[in-house]
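Lay summary. Proteins are chains of building blocks that fold into shapes, and those shapes determine what they do. In this project we predict the shape from the chain. Here is one chain we studied, written as its sequence of building blocks.
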Amino acid sequence: MASDMASSTFPWLTLAIFVPIVAGLLVLLLGRDDRPGFTRVLSLIGAVLGLLVTIPLYTGFNANTAQMQFVEKASWIESLNMNYHLGIDGISVWFVLLTAFITVIVVLAGWQVITSRVSQYMASFLILSGLMVGVFVALDGMLFYVFFEATLIPMYLIIGVWGGPNRVYAAFKFFLYTLMGSLLTLIAFIYLWHAADGSFDIQTWHQVKLTYTEQIFVFIALLAAFAVKVPMWPVHTWLPDAHVEAPTGGSVVLAAIMLKLGAYGFLRFSLPIAPDASQSLAGMMIALSLIAVIYIGLVAIIQDDMKKLVAYSSVAHMGFVTLGFFIFNTAGLEGAIVQMISHGFVSGAMFLCIGVLYDRLHTRRIDDYGGVINVMPRFVTFFVLFSMANAGLPATSGFVGEFTVIMGAVQYNFWIGLLTATALIWGAGYSLWMLKRVAFGPIANDNVRGMTDLNSREFFIMGLLAVAVLYMGIYPKPFTDVMHVSVDALLQHVSISKL
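And here is the predicted shape, written in a compact code that computers can read:
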């Protein structure tokens, strides 16, 4: 991989990490439940500042190089050669922006809904935001691992404290699955440190020449953590429980950002460090991805809980992502990254829509609704748009990533491409089936008759996400232009690293 560009003169990446974390600590310190209005405003200011400091990362980004940009480096633990080393390329820059944007959405979404422990709730999301940005910008293996594991703590609290009736079980299952997988990754990192002559520098790891057996070991160890986080079939079972029990904001962040941490790990570690193992095990990864795309899509259709349906659809959509990674062509890889960004918008929007319904009737069962369009026409307008995007309708962001991955799969193998394309059928099946039963037809019961349409805050949130979904669907070029050179460099690195 290419070497770093000259270090940035201004620490934008440090600000992107620590502005939301410091804001979260201030909210914990100053926020009080008897002054929830002040706490919410302070949280929103922190989230907006966190977004503003990421904008220069895009405006100042040079899309014509695969080198790391905005690089910061300082000694951290000198005796082990660990460094506070940060940087972004065309692959990671969009995820930093997406994380900051979704954090603003989540703070606004919890504005009136969360009435107990408001300061702790808002602080958890702000601190989590900074930690997730740290995962995407870390260029030191141990720094990556610290951020990667630290994200578990605030999400565990979000599910366990503000979740549903089975929140403790769901939070524990989430924590146990992700922590157990990560222990093997720590062993792989220590092995890579030894193989790189005592260096935790990720770009140095990319250049280490491992034997085929070593690559297999490293790939499997990394897979243990990243597959759980994505989540891939069959280690996906923690996700529906976590989504169902999490508060709306927790589901939004979990689907929009946290699932991307595992997928990003494949791009930053598995493919460039173990290229030969990646190609040898590609058949297994493609098979697991296709099971997620097809089988989990069918599982989603039979769900009677809206949150569980969208949770299973997330597993199916992330199957597109891992499939795109392991067909080793530009269309597949770029389509997978676009799908990751799009999924952040669409899945976040879907969970917010379910949250709006839940706030009014306090049920997520599809059968408890019906005819919502008669009393909430503005809401249903957005709900239709996001459901169509979830099904991959052209001119929405959901179509761009999936179609590009399908085209890449056809280039790789026609029959794999054909099987992948069936996901559009299943996606339309579960999305439109839920939409029809919830939104259309006559009013099903008196509870639905008493529902009120979106207020101005909810309309603003939905409008922001609708603009993102449509803009990316109609004009994806700004997204793909930024990542193109970095994607090509990664593919070249994987292809020329034959033993």
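What the prediction tells us: Confidence is low (pLDDT under 50) at residues 1-7.
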